[in-house]
Amino acid sequence: MSNPTSVLEDLLQALPDLRPQLYFKSSLTALSHAMEDQVLAGVDCSLVIASFQRERFYRQEAHRYLRISERAEQVYVLAAPETDFTSRSDQYETIAFVPTDALAQEWHLVVVGPRYAACLICREKQVPVATADATMPVATDQARRFEGIWTFDRQTVCIAANLLLDRILPYRPELGAKLAQAKAQLQIEQQTGSNDADPEPFAERLVTYLQAGQYKLLKAYRSIAAKERKERLVNSITTAIRRSLDPEEIFTVAVRELGQALRICRCLIYRCKETDTHVVIQHEYLGAASGSLLGQRWALQDNPLFQEVVQRKERVYVADAQANPWVLEDERVVLPTRSIATGSQSESVVQRWTIESWLMVPVMHQNRLLGMVELHTCGGTLHEWTDAELGLVDAIAAQIGVALIQAEAYANLEDLNQQLEALDLTRSNLIAITGHELRTPLSTIQICLESLSTEPDMPPELRQVMLQSALTDTERMRKLVQDFLTLSQLESGRVQWHLEALPLQECVDLALSSIRTRQRQSDLPEITAQVPPDLPLLKTDGEWLVEVFSKLLDNACKFTGPQGRIMIQAHANGRQMLEVTVADTGRGIEPNRLETVFDRFYQEEGALRRTTGGTGLGLAICRQIITGLGGRIWAESAGKDRGSQFHFTLPIARSEPGEKRTQTKTGRSKISRVRSN
Ligand code: ADP
């Protein structure tokens, strides 16, 4: 049934003098609508035949054809079905032709009446696929090209109508009689009809439809231009991101490009977290706005707009920021603005910085707020943000998010590298220290034990010396292994802190009694502890704190000598922390070593020339413990031979209502166990 020959071709064959013209789809739409409007306007009409390429083109016009069918004697509509277009006889005749029919490439409209006849017989010109751009569907659709005949010439119109009626017959043979009647009527129209209907309404409508098509096209091109602008901007920022891993550089580019593209009064980009109370502005684009915010503290917690963005996790804007209260863009949320004043001045932020419309777009990554893009408009007219503008800012914010995450990942990698380097150093130190610290005492122990076993006649005094040396070196090895295990446990983060409210005095007492049992009184310097009785309780883990004291006291004794003095002091450092000092009058520390002493395996004389014993791990362990307990530890010294002071802070226990917060002797130690040293 499918007819491969084109109606246009048949018409040109019937009338070889006709010259087809080129039409864009927008013009064809305007022409068709203007022709249909002649029928709708009441010009007498005996026959209307419309052939749509596909059902979807017809569907947009179905309602119009219902109205046309009320005004014309016979109406035929042809289309290739896509879903439910079928051949039927209703208010008018529908003819569903097969998609392979040449009609599927054509666009026809024929209107014939006693005072008006016109036809539009066209065929679509195929455009190569490469030039059809899917990114601009409206514009390309309107620019589709057709070639064909548009004429009021009655003879041509009637021939065209006859050709179309002939196309209908094979699809709807049951309409044979009706079609024959239409053909007979056509003959009459051709002979007796005249085109004397007033052409002015037609011309007017045609112009109106052409204008509408033009406007549609303009809109499409505008949106393409906006899209292109957006893509160019996003590209330039993406390029900046690719070129640099430095967020500062990316912010500089983004704030400038975005500000310029939107010709905005002020654009700000900054990093922030949900909980930040304020930020200091470091990246700003200033257009017509008065007053730069660079270097200024910019309140966040007090800004209801910021809070709204944090809550919604999406962009929010207020079109009229000078109004009080603020009505947000969806006109449902109203925010009180009284809290947003600039510090001591009563003047509000919006007045001070002449903000008229205020947009905040969050920079997010996996639901985490990383930063903010802010846009302010000013200049007397309220700004309505368009979808294109908002889409652009959203796209930039998304790119900035990617950049920040990328930079973060890079920084983490750097960190990881540093950690690996440190680990490598530790490994080398470990090899050196095990080589020396373990091998030396092991050889001593071996020699002593061998001598003891091979020389049974050894005098008892010498035997005692041998045994003592072996025991001392065994103890040194045990200490090293113990410290090493403690440090690796602390560094791995596997320590479970048992925090409780404790009096500092209790920990000091335990550490002092431990050192006094471990060392001979005569070898120790004078130790005094001055812990005020009204000191608040600590929130800490007693066992680990005693470990810190033991290590600091061991060092102080080691580097001070029996003639020196050691003092333990403590005072409240603000309302939240206690500060404890272990000071000695010993050999002191060089100013440039005050931080290094906390490094693993650091010993002033070097691990391999050590004379004082020790592992070089004690202070590293202390720092891990104090940091883990929420405090800070540092060393001070006036220099060589001028004594050292080790200070550390620890959190004060928060008292429950009615509870006394000071150091009362409980008479019973709350610390269940002193860590074995
Ligand atoms: P060590 O087991 O060698 O004492 P530490 O980590 O405890 O290891 O101390 C590291 C180094 O810090 C010591 O070797 C010493 O050089 C220096 N140091 C620690 N405490 C003192 C102190 N009270 N006075 C002088 N120097 C000290």
Structure in words:
The chain has 677 residues and is of the alpha+beta class. Helices cover 44% and strands 20% of the residues. The protein is built from 16 helices and 24 strands. The strands form six sheets. Strands 1-8-7-6-2-3-5-4 form an eight-stranded mixed sheet, sandwiched between helices. Strands 11-9-17-16-13 form a five-stranded antiparallel sheet, with helices on both faces. Strand 21 and strand 22 (577-584) form a beta hairpin. The protein starts with 6 loop residues before the first helix and ends in a 26-residue tail after the last strand. Bound molecules: adenosine-5'-diphosphate. The site of adenosine-5'-diphosphate has 20 residues, from helix 15 and helix 16.
Indicate the topology.
Layout: H1 7-14, E1 21-24, H2 25-40, E2 45-54, H3 55-59, H4 62-71, E3 72-80, E4 88-89, E5 93-96, E6 106-112, E7 117-124, H5 137-142, E8 145-151, H6 154-171, H7 176-192, H8 199-243, H9 247-262, E9 266-271, E10 278-280, E11 284-286, E12 297-299, H10 304-312, E13 316-318, E14 326-327, E15 334-335, H11 349-352, E16 357-365, E17 368-377, H12 387-454, H13 460-491, E18 500-502, H14 504-518, E19 526-530, E20 538-540, H15 542-558, E21 565-573, E22 577-584, H16 618-628, E23 633-637, E24 644-651
Parallel strand pairs: 2-3, 3-5, 19-21
Antiparallel strand pairs: 1-8, 2-6, 4-5, 6-7, 7-8, 9-11, 9-17, 10-12, 13-16, 14-15, 16-17, 18-20, 21-22, 22-24, 23-24
This protein binds adenosine-5'-diphosphate.
Adenosine-5'-diphosphate binds next to α15 and α16.
